[in-house]
Amino acid sequence: MTIVHIVSWKLAATDPAEKAEHAAGMVARLGGLVGVIDEIRSLRIGPDVVGGANWDIALVAEYDDEAALARYQVHPAHVAAGAYVKSVTAERMAVDFVV
Question: Whole-angstrom Cα distance, residue 18 to residue 75?
């Protein structure tokens, strides 16, 4: 079994330069968790390139099972990255499913 974890955020900033800076900060912090948190099987993150009604940044990650996802979510490195993410985002959506 594999759990796919998809998260998307709308950034709080409205200034394009500030949004780009915050998106880069999220990519660096969340992408930097690979190799730090053993439960991450794969993780891809990046800012939206199309614009319009799309959300600003998305993450797609895979975990072996729900227990691995739960361990990832409470890992101190993820909690620290999450604090930054919460400080620069206005909205968040997530979905987790089995493949």
Answer: 28
**Distance, CA of 98 to CA of 33 (rounded, Å):** 22
> Closest Cα to residue 59, out of 87, 35, 82, 90?
82
Element (H, E) at 82: helix 76-88
Q: What is the mean pLDDT of residues 37-60?
A: 97
| Stretch (H or E) spanning 95 | strand 89-98
Question: Distance (Å, rounded) from C-alpha 69 to C-alpha 46?
Answer: 20
42-47/57-63 β-pairing: antiparallel
Tens digits of residue pLDDT in 77-98:
999 999 999 999 999 999 999 9
Distance CA 50, CA 47 (A): 9
